[in-house]
Amino acid sequence: MNSPDITFYTKLLHIEHTLATPIYLQLAQQLSNAIQRGILPQGTKLPGTRPLSKAIHLHRNTIVAVYEELALQSWVEIIPNKGTYVLKPNKHKTTATAEPTQLANQYPQQTGFSFFPSIHLASPYKKPTTTYTLNDGQPDVGLLQINQLTKWYSASLKRKSLIGKWNDRMFEPNSYFEKQLSNYLNLTRNLHLKPTNLMATRSTEMCLYIVAQLLIKPRDIVVIGNKNPFTSNMIFQQSKAQLISIPVDNEGLNIKALTTLLEQRQKIRAVYICSNRQYPTTYALSAARRIKLLQLAKQYKFAIIEDDFDYDFQYEATARTPLISADTYGNVIYLGRFGQSLLPTLQTSFMVAPSAFITEAKNYRQMIDRQGDLVLEQILSEMIHEGEIHRQIKRSLKVYKHRRDVMCSELNNTFKNKIAFQVPDGGLAVWVSFSPAISLFQFAKNAELAGIYIPETLLYQNKEYCCLRIGFGNLDEDEIPLIIQKLKASYDRSVAV
């Protein structure tokens, strides 16, 4: 039977085997927490390593490691042949008392203060347990030549100039990467920008968040498509914007509906579009609508937020030039992604806008992401300079075009007249419409039983349409036929309900 002291420690110490933190560190953290709270006051002699290890069913070496860790942090003193004793907490460490019955591993689940939770920011994702997972059109990291990327990373870390860039980050208005990127965008997208017109960030969402902070006040009207990226909607809603949705058809955003809103004296602050391929439908904004949208922006003085999220993935002819290339009045804020053919950790995003707006945007970036990622920027700068980015894109396009063709062929052959879709001229996803309509939520449940997880964010259904966005970029030509067969079986079960 354990002594009262040992029994106390068996209640005090708790091991979580599911955590990545080593067991000896878990125990050291719990004991230091107890010392801070006064549960183990100064001078307390801790149990011997042998009886404690036996009581909590651990190897003695683990307890030895716990005590050594506490000694390194100056919580205890180990006296040879005498024992381990609690020291007085260092003055720089915050101490707090607690009720003796309050165990150190019981941290509060609720705050003692009020805060403002947001209903807009709850994640719609869940961790899939299925063999396959559909997405909205993500690149395949398996196509990457990891060894080559490792060489780029290693070479960048060895650059002596990198140290100077770290020191000068806050004083240099335009980074070396932004200078290289502006040259690249001018060559590939028919732009005429300078580094002062560009800001690089870690993600498009960060760009859009900064835009919302600079542009939107509560109740400002932002016009979006009735089918729109949920992440951008979340950012606008969090900024307390009033969202008004207008139809999206096979020519992109319906500009006639926008004109009607403006003629009704609606004071519109911004219009959000995906001009090259509208998300999620993959339909492009037509040339006539582009011209009309720019004219309306000039006349009514609203901002156009142009999200060009998949410009690099163009299979037929050439990609459409961004709307900002024809903007002569400073109404367009252009958002894009760079390095999508690389590892996710080597991808970045950017914003292009008039220099006055970029200056203010960089002030926000300085506040929320002061350091940035200089190693990443160095790698991408060198890949632009050496032409490696162009080679990576060219290699991946051949693969993705073949996967698109396999996906569209399998959809046609398997579903036949049960669905309708347009073969996309670019991007990594197909927009599929079901006719007659089915319950997409039931369809997703049946697909999950068949081993395919379909996130709710890919399902688009109301009284007017029943559509699914299927990404093919991460699926190889052997997986696609199998997945389409499983989706057809899931569809048949949904129809039979």
UniProtKB/TrEMBL annotation:
Q: Which PROSITE patterns match?
A: HTH_GNTR
Q: Which domain of life is it from?
A: Bacteria
The record, for SMART domains, names: HTH_GNTR
Give the HTH gntR-type domain ranges: 21-89
- Membrane-spanning residues: none
What is a single Pfam family found in this protein's UniProt entry?
GntR
Keyword entries, A-Z:
Aminotransferase, DNA-binding, Pyridoxal phosphate, Transcription, Transcription regulation, Transferase
One GO MF annotation is: transaminase activity
Gene3D superfamilies documented for this protein: Type I PLP-dependent aspartate aminotransferase-like (Major domain) (3.40.640.10), Winged helix-like DNA-binding domain superfamily/Winged helix DNA-binding domain (1.10.10.10)
Q: What family does the Swiss-Prot or TrEMBL record give for this protein?
A: In the C-terminal section; belongs to the class-I pyridoxal-phosphate-dependent aminotransferase family.
Which protein are we looking at? GntR family transcriptional regulator/MocR family aminotransferase
The top of its lineage is: Bacteria, Pseudomonadati, Bacteroidota, Flavobacteriia, Flavobacteriales
